[in-house]
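Appendix B: a complete holo record

For completeness, this appendix reproduces one full record from the ligand-bound portion of the collection. The bound molecule is flavin-adenine dinucleotide. The inputs are the chain sequence and the ligand SMILES; the output is the full three-dimensional arrangement of the complex, encoded as structure tokens. No fields have been trimmed.
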Amino acid sequence: MDFNLSSDDIAMQQSTRDVVNELLKHEPNFHETNEIPAVIDETLSNMGYYGLSIPQEYGGLEIDKVTGALVQLELARLPPQFWAPIRSALGPTPHVLVNHGSKEQKEKWLPEIASGHKKVAFALTEPDAGSDVTAMHTTAVKKEDRWVLNGTKIFITNANIADIIIVFAKTDASQGRNGISAFIVEPSTPGFSLGKPMKTMGWMVEGLFEISFDNCEIPLQNLLGEENKGFYYALEGLSEARVNVGCQALGGGDIALEHAIQYAKDRVTFGVPLASHQVIQHKLADMSMEQHVARLLLLEAAWGLQNNKDIRLQSSYVKVFCTETAHKTADSALQIFGGSGYMKGMVVERVYRDIRVLRIYEGASEIQRNMIAKQILK
Ligand SMILES: Cc1cc2nc3c(=O)[nH]c(=O)nc-3n(C[C@H](O)[C@H](O)[C@H](O)COP(=O)(O)OP(=O)(O)OC[C@H]3O[C@@H](n4cnc5c(N)ncnc54)[C@H](O)[C@@H]3O)c2cc1C
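The structure of the chain with flavin-adenine dinucleotide bound, as generated:
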């Protein structure tokens, strides 16, 4: 096995780290004002990050999945709000579009998504249907030359800025998972409405919304892929997205660890730096070791994606292990900071809150363990 990164990988990783370090200078002010300066999105879109996973023929960078993971590990050192729209552009939406969209749909949307001019959202979850997707109530009924959508989706990231939302709805209620389809909905469509922003524990900007459809009529050609295949498209998109969530988690863990190491060197207790106490050294050693193991698992899954392997098992491993490892890392980092770590404005405090959600969305840990058990017991 070759564990060496290519020179291109190293260059891309380094240029991303440089950009991220520059943008991190805006973090203290962001903690004060809760406002994201426009330069953040401008810089990231100029670097082409919106198009990381989009084919070159549609204006994307279409980089190798391992390189993509390395880039995301760097981007994830930023507060998640700084690059939330990019995360959506790397998530299941473009995956479903690239793999199942018609030629017209791809030509219309992918170049705009790759350039960052059009933002995307993915709407699967409903008030009564989160982990149990098939319990969804939203329906799409075909009427002559259009589909008519009715229902409500909840916790939809970036719904307020999205130009295109991939919405999942029941097209044949009697068929369970075989009766769900995917649609492209533009929020300007009559019958679509955006709810109030939902207040969250982390990500302290408005980014999460309920959306609803009241006889929302969309053209027949907005069906994405084949009718009644939507459930499988969502699963497929989420399998890749879980590797991205692993990157978000470990990038957060990395920056928490960096801050903890620096603090342990600077802070003096009982006449010596914290880093001289063996208990603290062991804590840091465990954090570093666990982050490293998780990164190997993540890169293996990214390699599998790149090489068209079946990564269903690995992506569940990544989702659970990377998010739980990063949570442990952030918790230990905060502990090393003592009372200061609990104060607003500290990076470890921000990371601790922001990465908590990663164990919930895009398939909660319990559901991933169910999926792993199902595969190893079959
Ligand atoms: C910040 C944030 C952003 C999100 N963004 C989006 C988005 O953009 N688009 C979107 O569609 N959704 C989004 N979601 C929704 C997210 O995917 C769901 O919250 C998640 O799938 C869990 O569903 P739920 O909240 O309904 O929990 P439930 O399904 O009600 O589960 C509650 C708890 O029970 C556990 N559980 C459920 N069933 C089982 C079982 N069979 N065995 C063992 N344990 C079980 C779950 O793991 C969980 O811990 C977002 C959520 C958050 C918090």
